[in-house]
Amino acid sequence: MAQQARAVKTRRTILEAAAEVFDEYGYEGASTTEILARSGLTRGALYFHFPSKEAIADAVVDAQSEALVPPENEVKLQATIDLAMAFAHRLRTDVVLRAGVRLSVEQASYKNPNVAPYQGAADVILDLLRQAQERGELLVSVDPEEVSQLIIGAFTGIQLLSQVYGQRRDLPLRVAALWKYLLPALAIPGLLPHLVVDPQRVIMTGPAQGAEPARSAGGFATGDVPGRASGGRSVADELETSLTEALPQV
């Protein structure tokens, strides 16, 4: 067990050192010599875990999955928002995640033919949106597959701009703005005022951290919902009733 734990620690040390190098120099400018210098390990230890620089890069890219575990929330559209906001916050502090994102963008110099860039993130977002659709949280016109690709593309562009303009210091603000203007095209009107889009609100992946006061995502009225159920209640009305405990009233 001690030997196994030591091997896990050594592998993580290599990943973190490599991530620093990839984050600073990109795939083309990185070298195993520099990775070794930062890790403080021997070349034998490095090649025991990774046969090549490309294998290390593959592992760094795969590590993005650690930041793609949706936070628990009965409201799946809110879980989608929280996941994106947590990812944005983590990009500012997690060098392994930053390096994975940079490698995914640099398809000219680093390219794994067996892995489609951003596919893991797209799959997670798509699953959340499909759950939101099944729960009646989305407008009938919404196509979850199209929206998942839109979110991934928009987030990628936003984080690149934020990196260029300010080392991602304003990334949560930019992502919050994305959701502010995107949500009215996704959420049913009865749910929209209860969705929280706050760049200071961080819900880390894993068990729910407890409810927080909700604030309006855009100040839209909850009424005027097209299509009424047979009892005179809209889908939005019924959803609001079922989510009373999950989301506090505004």
Automatic annotation (TrEMBL):
It comes from the Bacteria. InterPro entries: ArpA-like (IPR047923), CprB_TetR_C (IPR054126), DNA-bd_HTH_TetR-type_CS (IPR023772), Homeodomain-like_sf (IPR009057), HTH-type_TetR-like_transc_reg (IPR050109), HTH_TetR (IPR001647), Tet_transcr_reg_TetR-rel_C_sf (IPR036271). The keyword Transcription regulation applies. The keyword DNA-binding applies. Gene3D superfamilies: Tetracycline Repressor, domain 2. Residues 208-250 are annotated as: Disordered. Residues 31-50 bind DNA. This is ScbR family autoregulator-binding transcription factor. Residues 8-68 form the HTH tetR-type domain. Keywords: DNA-binding, Transcription, Transcription regulation.
